[in-house]
Specification:
The chain is mainly beta and about 150 residues long. The model has no long low-confidence stretch (mean pLDDT about 90). The protein has two domains: about 30 residues, no CATH class; about 120 residues, Immunoglobulin-like (Sandwich). It is about 10% helix and about 55% strand. Strands 6-5-8-9 form a four-stranded antiparallel beta sheet, with no helix packed on it. It has a three-stranded antiparallel beta sheet with strand order 3-4-7, with no helix packed on it.
Length: about 150
């Protein structure tokens, strides 16, 4: 399990997970919001993304703004291995992760975005935007929305 892009441990360690989440919640964050989320045609999601600038106190010079598209839920039918014969249910299955911009200490990010869903379904999607130090560092902010039709 990774919390806030910084704290890594075995996910079954509930006590450590709670502590990591509590500590991450105390850290300074930037606002990230999604608005005007809508389906255009059958395979294009349109939205507006806003992310604030990094705080002057930040040790990071910049952070990437990433757009994630996930199925709200999915299931898999397992034919082999320890889960053979079982149907597993999943939440927020990532289908696409795209870098859409940057924020730094002098400027945030504000842009209208259109994303092609390729061959994926446009039903019951979860859309998230994350501001994260590159490569794979601290999460400075996140926002999400759902697209149901």
């Amino acid at each position: 399990m990774v919390v806030d892009g910084r704290f890594e441990f075995v996910g079954s360690d509930e006590r450590r997970a709670i502590l990591a989440i509590e500590n991450a919640a105390k850290l300074e964050k930037i606002p990230v919001s999604l608005s005007s989320v809508r389906l255009e045609g059958e395979r294009t999601v349109a939205l507006h993304v806003d992310a604030g600038a990094l705080p002057a106190s930040s040790p990071a010079k910049s952070a990437s703004v990433l757009l994630a598209i996930a199925d709200e839920s999915d299931e898999s039918h397992v034919s082999r291995g320890e889960n053979a014969g079982r149907t597993l249910r999943h939440v927020a299955v990532l289908r696409n992760l795209t870098r859409i911009g940057n924020v730094d200490k002098s400027a945030g990010f504000s842009q209208d975005i259109k994303v092609d869903l390729d061959n994926g379904s446009s039903r019951n999607l979860r859309i998230a935007v994350i501001a994260q130090e590159s490569p794979g560092g601290r999460i400075w902010g996140a926002g999400s929305a759902r697209l149901s039709n």
